[in-house]
Amino acid sequence: MCCNQKRVGFSGRFPLPARPPMTPPANNPAPQRQSPLVRTIRFEYVGDTSLSVMGPITRVQYKFRGKGARVEIDYRDAPYVTAVPNLRKTI
Fold this sequence. Notes:
This protein is of the alpha+beta class.
């Protein structure tokens, strides 16, 4: 087979690597010991209704069920979530 035939058969597309599915964090999870590689930041909702925010990096949907709800947010999504009104970082 000639080299040119290989080049003609090339489509220019490469398969994307599979991403492992991420499960959304629970609204009020029980304290768990996390792996040192998993970094989250806790946010509290201070609004009057409920709120749902999709993380632009992880594509996880974070649900705040009502005022005072606390949710662990993946550190990669945290800069975006910080800009959402009525959400505050907690310690």
